[in-house]
Design brief:
alpha+beta; Rossmann fold; D-amino Acid Aminotransferase, Chain A, domain 1; Dna Ligase, domain 1; 3 domains; five-stranded antiparallel β-sheet; globular
């Protein structure tokens, strides 16, 4: 069935450029699949533009706020438009790191402990013993993450004149730093796809490492103990279900194998709008699992239409 698909991209979040890069691949895939495509770069008049476009379905290629936090999802439901990826509640919860941590740990999923702190307080003293991590509570793609170690060039306590997330966000999430390796697992529908290890040349898999070619090596499948591979997939699927996600998600982990394998696995967060760029992990895992990029895009469209149909019946 040929569809008229709006690809919603851009916006005003810190991840707007990544969203536009994701949209390039999505638009090309939709054309290959024979669909009619209307790209919309999201601005404040998005509702009017969607109403004028009259699409059959919306492919949500937005990353960050407001496309990943439930806001756009709520708008699309008010307009009675089918859309890809997770719904209002799952999106809002997953975007709030502390809230999702509460729900996921109650579901029995191992995560680092954490607490919300006012950014102003870090200049008086460390909220946790070093090393620890400070990150915004409502951002994705490792935007604004800082690792505070004993030899960090931030001072002790953190100096006011040092650049960091404490200048850009009123509230931060503080977590103990988990040593070891970076792993990630994508879930499509109800199936975990693979485990990828991320090895960077910059020491930390931050926003630049994710989206700058040549900085990060993706090792798929990850060369880890078989029990940890099984556990990572099970934890990613359990998190996907506990948050009520649908479509495609990606769960990020730290794997502490510093005392040997098998080590201890910690879930960091669940991304409800994984990147779809040429460097993105979820499409790479889909390809590894025998799912082409075009099939992945079509699967997400089918899921959107199926979910909308059942919502109307309900």
């Amino acid at each position: 069935m040929n569809l008229h698909v709006v690809v919603l991209m851009g916006g005003w979040s810190a991840e707007q450029d990544v969203s536009r890069n994701s949209a390039i691949g999505i638009v090309n895939a939709l054309h290959t699949l024979g669909h009619r495509v209307t790209p919309i770069d999201m601005q404040r008049d998005v509702a009017e533009r969607l109403a004028n476009a009259k699409p059959d379905v919306v492919f949500n290629a937005l990353h960050g706020t407001p496309g990943e936090d439930g806001s756009v999802q709520g708008l699309l439901e008010l307009m009675d438009l089918p859309y890809t990826h997770s719904g209002v509640t799952a999106s809002a919860i997953a975007m709030n790191k502390q809230l999702s941590k509460t729900i996921l740990t109650q579901a029995g999923i191992r995560m680092p402990t954490g607490k919300l702190v006012k950014s102003e307080t870090v200049f008086a003293g460390d909220p946790l013993p070093r090393p620890y991590v400070l990150k915004p509570n409502n951002e994705g793609s490792s935007v604004g993450v800082a690792i505070i170690t004993a030899d960090s060039n931030v001072g002790n306590p953190i100096r006011r004149d040092v650049p960091g997330p404490w200048h850009d966000y009123e509230t931060l999430l503080a977590e103990p730093f988990i040593p070891g390796r970076e792993l990630t697992v994508a879930v499509l529908g109800d199936k975990p796809l693979a485990v990828t290890e991320l090895q960077t040349t910059v020491g930390f898999y931050d926003y630049n490492a994710k989206y700058t070619d040549g900085i990060t090596q993706h090792i798929i499948p990850a060369k880890i103990h078989p029990d940890i591979e099984t556990e990572a997939k099970a934890m990613a699927l359990a998190a996907h279900r506990a948050l009520g996600c649908r479509g495609l998600t990606r769960s990020d982990f730290r794997y502490d194998d510093t005392k040997g394998e098998p080590g201890t696995l910690y879930l960091l967060e669940v991304n409800t709008q994984p990147g779809m760029t040429a460097l993105s992990l979820a499409p790479e895992q889909a390809h590894f699992s025998g799912i082409s990029y075009e099939t992945l895009v079509q699967t997400l469209l089918d899921d959107a239409l199926h979910t909308h149909k059942h919502r109307e019946v309900a």
